[in-house]
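seq/struct pair 1
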Amino acid sequence: MGLLFGVTTAVVLLAFALSTCFYINHLSDREIKRVSPGQAKLHEIQGRLVDDNPDKPGSPQRNTSLASKCTMAPASRFDCARDRALSRRQCEERGCCYAPLPNSAGPPWCFYPSLYPGYQMGPLTPTMQGQAATLTRAKPSYLPRDISTLSLEVTEEPAGCLHLTLKDPSSQRYEVELPAGVPQSRADGDDALYTTEYQSDPFGFIVRRKSNGKVIMNTTVAPLLFADQYLQLSHTLASSLVSGLGEHYTSLLLDLNWTSLTLWNRDMAPH
């Protein structure tokens, strides 16, 4: 009788162990199906962000809350799909946030999260004309033929002028030489009417008016993108009253309600 009870107990324990193993394997199979390698989607599993392919260009780093990165006011969104309309999958493959809004016109549905991976800025070193630094991108962006290393040159000019140049150091380009007699640098840097702050990772800069601290330009709001024949530099406007910026048939005062303006580079009327 004792032997039969012992055998029955062993069978019950073995069945329980096998059912527990099957349940755990079943859970693992479900989780693997939700996070399949190679699809490069972002999934929320048990409150943490899991990246299917952390090495894919543009993907955010692991163990970062997607909700906190994508929580921003619609007015603060910067379009991650300027080139074409993207589905949720295509948007998330770029490492961007996808949050549809009731109206199709207005703030973008696919937008950059906060601190989207971009260029890292090296130390500023003095030059004959001002300062220089190297910008490097650890992983390529979603743009074709993007440039992984850039040269940043800050030229000191008159007190009210800031001159920054971004270019590909590996590809020589034509540059207009300064005429003789034009000063190559400002005599006293303390006379500048502005201050410049640099964000090293991801790269961006903020220009403030020295007299009252007002922000004139802020490029830290969205990533810098630089590719062959393509440059994207985003910034917030210091005022809602803007005029100029190319030829257009609308009023002199520009409409800033999620509109696009074309800067024409040849003498041809827009059609």
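seq/struct pair 2
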Amino acid sequence: DLDTAKQELEEFIPHVRNISDNSIRKMAGRDLARFKQFKKQGIAVKFGRFSQKENNQIRKNIEEFLLITGIDSAEKLLFTSRYPEDKDTINRLKADHLFCEKLSEGIPRPWRLIYYRARKMFDSHNYKGRYSTEEKEKLKKYYALHGNNWKKISELMSRSNLSVAMKYSEIKSAVNYGPWSKEETQKLMHAVEEVIRKRIEKEDGNSLSSSEKSHREISIGREALCHKLPWTEIAAKVGTRFWRQCKQKWTTVLTNKMTKGQQLYRGTKGLQAKINLIKRLYEMKVEDDNEVDWEKLSNAIGDVPKAYVQAKFYKLKVSCVPLWQKKTFSEIIDYLFEEKLPELEEQL
């Protein structure tokens, strides 16, 4: 029954009582036995970003299921509604060959998260670049007709469900997309200061009076300026920008302050920074970007926040690595080291 399912699942998912009853029933069927099996092996249930190892396991599970059933593509398997003429046959094969169990094999996560990850990995409508003005207008029109039916809207726009949902959340807010004004930047800085002050005062407890708290100067480490800030809350205080814009702008503000306005990524300095970044990443020999200590890596460019380094690496791989979306993290690094590095060193 539902109460027993909640009680048993709570051992593996502490926030389970915040999940809808319908989702709990599905998890009891799809996940509970798997979670217990993983527990016997001493493996904890995971959340957060998927590792390269987990992505590879998803690919393996999908490939094996396609071989067993004869379904000719991962897209047909995961986006069956796009193929109405084959829909009944595919759904029957999925039921007969226990698709849920096969997809989640060897991955200690809730089935729903594995399914969403697989759909993101194999969706041909992903990675289609920026939305044009015409596409944004279409998105508004389709939302007016279909509401939150992202599945329907994604089919009409040939974009992934996640992409159209996130883009609409940006469009519907009173967001400014132009250059930041002085007033907006000040609002951002005050908003960040406010949340950091609250956090520090909470940690201090009642050791200071309210008067002392409001007037004292605070000295904080770099970690507090960059790490796990509540961007949705900060964006609400700024009022005219989306949370991702606030995060990017704050990285720019921090970088300017930490480097005293020096241009670290232009001219010969920029070439040297790219060379250092590629060499350091290659030396790390990691298989997944989750394993990279971006904070430590920041001095490859200069005294900058880790978000700045991550952004520069993203631009580097997008501009220099052909078909980077289909390559693993280690393949991207190898390509940059073997193909791009000699070119940059010659330019320098």
